[in-house]
Design a protein that fits this description.
Layout lengths: L1 H12 L2 H4 L3 H5 L3 H13 L9 H17 L4 E9 L3 H12 L6 E9 L5 H13 L13 E6 L6 H12 L10 E5 L3 E3 L4 H9 L5 E9 L5 E3 L3 E2 L5 E2 L18 E3 L6 E5 H6 L12 H11 L3 E12 L11 H11 L1 H4 L26 H4 L3
Parallel strand pairs: 1-2, 1-4, 2-3, 6-12
Antiparallel strand pairs: 4-11, 5-12, 6-7, 8-9, 10-12
């Protein structure tokens, strides 16, 4: 079926779809996506009514400088669950600390999910002992380090929810305005990435989850966004393609259906209103579910495609049979997942690589899972 869909797409649009596999995502935007882009452009006072990275970054910089002149900064907590793999966690942490933090009050919350190796404990002890020496004495507000120990069986949703609950308790200090859920197998490379994501999230009260482009070690694309209902519960359109930042997809920010939990930023207020991640979803789909809940509140999920972060997917945990969780989330959301308004109905749900639909409608997830 996929071969037929891609052959038909090639016949209709020619080699453009081969030269740029993301071209269809730009050409076939849904009405909800177009409306969201136009509304944000209007809010930002863009005369031509279109979002462009250059215009948007100008607005982000204006917003940042206004905050600076008023002596204000944004508070952000980055939550990183891990279990051993200390070198990977340390590298992730070091890349985070190299970000431009001048206008960010940063809290880093490491959630140790039952690590057993001696090297991990030695690494944690060394990190705590050296923390105050990592930053210049004249730093206005050095990052705060929190290390939580949580020995329960791995449940991504429970680990992150518990961390947020800890961070928002009055006895643990001021609650952060924003949360970044981050896998320990990620690496920031551009020092302005975190600031761009955070200040973009602050531009409108309608911002739900915000993400970026995640790349494999070889710089091929791992994640542009999550497409609900594509090949079971959801998939990563154009996953595995080579990166070409000159393609049209990377020129603009995009409203999208969902963002991966490997790097997902949103306001604490919205996360709390959504009651956090669904703890029924221990290993998969919890990011998709959260983003759909945010849509229910009238919020929009966005991606900044020209912000790039490395993601060494599956490096930390082996994938398990997730049929139960896929069944749960598909049944929970029904058409809101299968034919989401923020992914054009003109694009097929039967292929992770974008192709035109031929009227085949929703993907038959229950038949594939043999339910």
């Amino acid at each position: 079926m996929e071969i037929v869909l891609h052959a038909r797409t090639l016949i209709i649009h020619g080699t453009q779809v081969l030269k740029d596999p993301t071209w269809l995502l730009v050409k076939y935007q849904s009405e909800a996506q177009l409306n969201a882009s136009a509304q944000l452009a209007a809010e930002l006072g863009l005369a031509h009514g279109q979002l462009k990275v250059a215009d948007l970054m100008t607005r982000v910089e204006e917003f940042r400088m206004r905050k600076k002149s008023q002596g204000q900064i944004l508070s952000l907590a980055v939550i990183i669950p891990f279990r051993d793999s200390w070198k990977m966690t340390r590298d992730c942490l070091e890349s985070l600390l190299k970000q431009n933090l001048e206008h960010i009050a940063l809290t880093i919350c490491l959630v140790d999910n039952g690590s057993q190796k001696e090297e991990t404990q030695l690494g944690i002890d060394s990190l705590k002992a050296d923390w105050d020496y990592k930053f210049p004495h004249n730093s206005a507000q050095p990052p705060t380090l929190r290390i939580l120990r949580d020995n329960r069986p791995f449940n991504f949703s429970e680990l992150n929810n518990a961390a947020v609950e800890f961070l928002t308790q009055p006895e643990n200090g001021s609650a952060p305005e924003y949360l970044l859920f981050l896998n320990n197998d990620t690496l920031f490379e551009d020092p302005d990435s975190l600031e761009r994501l955070l200040f973009f999230s602050s531009l409108s009260p309608r911002m739900g989850a915000v993400g970026c482009t995640l790349l494999y070690r070889n710089s091929n694309v791992q994640h542009l966004f999550l497409a609900p209902g594509v090949k079971l519960a959801g998939a990563h359109p154009a996953k595995g393609i080579g990166l070409n930042a000159n393609h049209a997809w990377y020129a603009d920010p995009h409203p999208v259906p969902a963002i991966t939990g490997a790097l997902l930023l949103l306001s604490t207020k919205h996360f709390t209103a959504a009651k956090g991640f669904d703890t029924t979803l221990a290993t998969s789909c919890q990011d998709l579910d959260l983003c759909l809940k945010l849509q229910n509140f009238g919020l929009e999920n966005w991606v900044l495609p020209n912000v790039f972060v490395k993601h060494f997917e599956t490096s930390t945990r082996l994938k398990q049979n997730q049929a139960t969780e896929i069944t749960y989330v598909c049944s929970k959301w029904g058409a809101r997942l299968a034919m989401n308004a923020y992914y054009s109905r003109e694009l097929t749900r039967w292929s992770e690589r974008p192709a035109l639909s031929w009227g085949e409608s929703a993907y038959p997830w229950s038949a594939v899972l043999e339910l």
